[in-house]
Amino acid sequence: MDAQIKGSTMPILEMLLDPGESLISTHGELSWMSTNMQLTQTTSAGGTKGVMSGLKRMVGGGGLFVTKYEPLGGQGMIAFAAKLPGRIFPIDIAPGQGFLVHRHGWVCGTDGIVPTVGLQQTFRGGLYGQDGFILQKLEGTGRAWIELSGEITTYELAAGQSLLVHPGHVGLFEDRVSFTIQRLKGISNMAFGGDGYHLVNLTGPGNVWLQSLTVPGLAHAVAPYLGGDDHPAAAAGVGGVLGGMIGKNL
What percent of the chain has pLDDT over 70? Predict the structure, then answer.
């Protein structure tokens, strides 16, 4: 299997698969492929089988089924394009070692990867009008490819060292890193701070990958260019576009 990441700000992951090799991903990740690639839908991933495994993926923001890609009659090609400016990069997963990734961060993986639920915590008041902080957990054996938005910053937290992170900037971290949702203190911070009501407390030991670009931040930046706010139709259009973007990517 040969993987190439092409481009810069909107990268493309291009995979060449030999006969007998396969990839899995959530549905809807495919961008293009050669004509000899075969797609099948399955609830099995990394040796786990059954509807229960699919239900766990759904709770983690994935789907009931995963898509399996296999070449027929020779080498095949498949490509996955980034959905937002940022980076696509690989992580290697071994038995007893897992990673937690934000809801839409997992692009694809080798057939030994097991995607499941990491956490879904709800918090009253929500964040960006949403009602939860959802992560996927990747475990098993093999290689997975991750998409994070904007610039990527990594931290290696020592045992007991903590970092408070805005939920939208949490990209990926090792499952040995513990985490809790922490409510901002102070009525003025909550009402006028503009940073949401909650932060994620990440505590080491372990590695953490944070992303600089959040979908709500991008939506806020482009909102003034989508039409005049004083026109009802334009305002409704802006609300619909931003609501759709935020709802699909949190």
Answer: 71
